[in-house]
Amino acid sequence: MLRSLVFSLAVLGSASVLASTACPQYFAAGQPPVITNPKLKPRTQELCFRAYAVLHSGVTRTPLYSAEYLTRKNVKNAGKLSRQDSFHAEEALPERDRAELSDYERSGYDRGHMAPNADFATRKAQAESFSLANMVPQVHENNAGVWAGIESAARQLATTEGDIYVISGPAFIGGNLKKIGNVLVPTHVWKVIYSPAQQRAGAYLITNDATRDYAVVTVSKLEKMIGLSLLPGLPQQVRDAGMALPKPESRQDRRKKTRPEDEFTLRDFTSLVMDALNRALKH
Hints:
The strands form four sheets. The protein has a seven-stranded antiparallel β-sheet with strand order 2-3-4-7-10-11-12, with helices on both faces. A two-stranded antiparallel ribbon has the order 1-13. The chain has a two-stranded antiparallel sheet with strand order 5-6. It is built from ten helices and 13 strands. It is about 35% helix and about 25% strand. It is globular, with a radius of gyration of 22 Å.
């Protein structure tokens, strides 16, 4: 009897640390991340959208994370849609807590998606991805380079495996943080992937600068860095073990690979003309 009571109290105690959510479909085992750093807790608000969920911070005026359940079908359907930008302030947030378009104007930073537009299979879902509640100030070379490659790698993995859970967000590490308007600029951005097929999880981590470098780390290592327990519904060994993740390629690298071998460009034509002239001059 006593042993049963102790077990029941332990279960109740562990359940109390789990966060509740109105949109469990976007989280592995239906459990959203839990804030472990008390400094991140004030003025947070969950937002549930058609295809992703956000935990927004009124202190940073950015998401602390954006979460998605990414499937092969959605990736395929999303690929049929052209991009239509519709950046907007999030009216579901109090004015004192939300980013405004004016915060980003002439800042030198991109409005960087955490849950990317290209993941979403309908126009309405894509339009919702342009909420500033889903954005962080991001260095352009980063956003258009290695981060775009990481986003593409996640879609590649979802296509290969059928479905994955993805959580993306910023990190604010150190005491010398910048602001644009009222929005805090992250020092790093990260993306966590959990594969139900493999029952493994891993994370990409990059600095928010012009780097082309990235790191693949375990979820537990990332959790210690950013003050969030990211996959609380999964066993600790899954968070500790790590996962082999696809190598991200920048848009420039992908364009080079997709050029047909027989494509004839102006540069090719010029080279042929010069070769012909050189041969003529030798005779």
